[in-house]
Amino acid sequence: MLDVRRLRLLRDLARLGTIAAVAQAHTYSPSAVSQQLAALQREAGVPLLERTGRGVTLTPAGTALVRHAETVLAALEAATATLAAARSGLHGTVRIGAFPTAVRTLLPAALVALGREHPALDLMVTELDPVHMPDALRERRLDVALLHDYDLAPVTPDPTVESEPLLDETVFLALPADHPVDGDPIATVEHRAWIAGTPGTLCHTVALRTCQAAGYQPRVRHHADDFTAVLALVAAGQGVALVPQLGAVHAPPGVRLVPLPSRRRTRLAYRRGSGGHPAVSACVTAVRTATAAYLASAAGPGA
């Protein structure tokens, strides 16, 4: 019988590429990971790994086993969800991950509703950039995540994660109110300074790609990840920026918001197989209800 914990290590080796990275993800030592993978290889009875220089790669049998491991792990999540549904009442810890604008606008009402309807749930929120959320779900640091991508920077679906659409937002070009816009808005700000997210974040990538699609490389003067700060910098004449609908609801005076064809798409995500877990389902329902209520009451652009 193959050990599930060892299958998870093999799956993560296929994803991360090195034993050292797997050890770091699981807070093990590299030697402990190597020992567990060697034990899995003995259980399998065929070579799963082969040495390549100072590292290891998966054999064809190892790659095939990883595909089965994904199915096994998803089935275990589904089994856990079934057992949880058989118990009366919801209790335990639910870890929710979200990007900053969702934490500020959508989650508060959802948390209030969950606390009122399921007081035995221990709700924990972590603010996280969407690029890190699939790893956090896979490593069980999160149970539910609000993640997003942009049409200019689509994210490849992760086979270990299931998701469902939540929100499709307009993206605005935020610029000083006195800046003229004639024709393509992005082309008109080619010579202005830009305010973009921290390098490595999805928002930073989208700003670069938006300008590159217009034929130029932006001159990024400031980096800021909070859209309230971004809009304050725009109002102070420090540059222009891309701001999605949730971040643009309360734009300060002196800022002009020009809608662009680009869209930001938010999804609710959870580990594959865990969607039937009552706590996950309750979180999804609460976030959906809070999102609908927020958009209905918002007075900003695109409401």
Automatic annotation (TrEMBL):
<dbReference type="InterPro" id="IPR036388">
    <property type="entry name" value="WH-like_DNA-bd_sf"/>
</dbReference>
<dbReference type="GO" id="GO:0032993">
    <property type="term" value="C:protein-DNA complex"/>
</dbReference>
<dbReference type="GO" id="GO:0003700">
    <property type="term" value="F:DNA-binding transcription factor activity"/>
</dbReference>
<feature type="domain" description="HTH lysR-type">
    <location>
        <begin position="2"/>
        <end position="59"/>
    </location>
</feature>
<dbReference type="GO" id="GO:0003677">
    <property type="term" value="F:DNA binding"/>
</dbReference>
<protein>
    <submittedName>
        <fullName>LysR family transcriptional regulator</fullName>
    </submittedName>
</protein>
<keyword id="KW-0804">Transcription</keyword>
<dbReference type="Pfam" id="PF00126">
    <property type="entry name" value="HTH_1"/>
</dbReference>
<comment type="similarity">
    <text>Belongs to the LysR transcriptional regulatory family.</text>
</comment>
<keyword id="KW-0805">Transcription regulation</keyword>
<dbReference type="InterPro" id="IPR005119">
    <property type="entry name" value="LysR_subst-bd"/>
</dbReference>
<dbReference type="InterPro" id="IPR036390">
    <property type="entry name" value="WH_DNA-bd_sf"/>
</dbReference>
<dbReference type="InterPro" id="IPR000847">
    <property type="entry name" value="LysR_HTH_N"/>
</dbReference>
<keyword id="KW-0238">DNA-binding</keyword>
<dbReference type="Pfam" id="PF03466">
    <property type="entry name" value="LysR_substrate"/>
</dbReference>
